[in-house]
Amino acid sequence: MSxxxxxxxxIFLGMMVLVKTLKRCIVRSCRWCFVLVFxxxxxxxxxxxxxxxxxxSKAYADSTGRVHVVMGNGREVVLPQESVELPxxxxxxxxxxxxxxxPNCCTSYPxxxxxxxxxxxxxIHRIGNGRGLFRWQFVKEGEQVAYFSDTVHSNLAxxxxxxxxxxxxxxxxxxxxxxxxxxxxxxxxxxVGSLDSNSR
Length: 200
Fold this sequence. Notes:
The chain is of the alpha+beta class. It folds into 2 domains: about 50 residues; about 140 residues, YVTN repeat-like/Quinoprotein amine dehydrogenase (Methylamine Dehydrogenase, Chain H, 7 Propeller), CATH 2.130.10. About 25% of the residues lie in helices and about 35% in strands. The protein is flat, with a radius of gyration of 23 Å. The two termini are about 40 Å apart.
């Protein structure tokens, strides 16, 4: 269960408690019950406001390479300057990811080697395997990230990797010769090319 869904469940539970308490107040006409209802309703409203403040409404990279994350309440977070690609917001509206480019000895241009993951005001993980990380996407509304990596030229070592966003741990890997692509990696089929390990 994602953090977003878990928090939404907490709000629903708070509303249920609020309704039950209100029913008891009507029956008992208890002064303290009405005080409790007021406190519960205030807590639910504050929780809803906090959730809104944690949602990401926009993310972009400026001309200097800094990533800007704009929250639902208008607050803007600016991340340190790097050579980055266009940031992507996950379906949970809380997680943002972007590729970071690094100089490469054998090319005249930098190549993407890392995907940075940001959530709830912090960079939580930097993922990659040391080779060019040329394509990636969020999976399951931001619970996971899938990426495709390979050598810079000649398509010598294509690899698809599935990563858990919460822990940063690798869940599954696919490399040429391992058979058909798993469902989460099918989006990278054109990048992978031949599935035969003897094909070069």
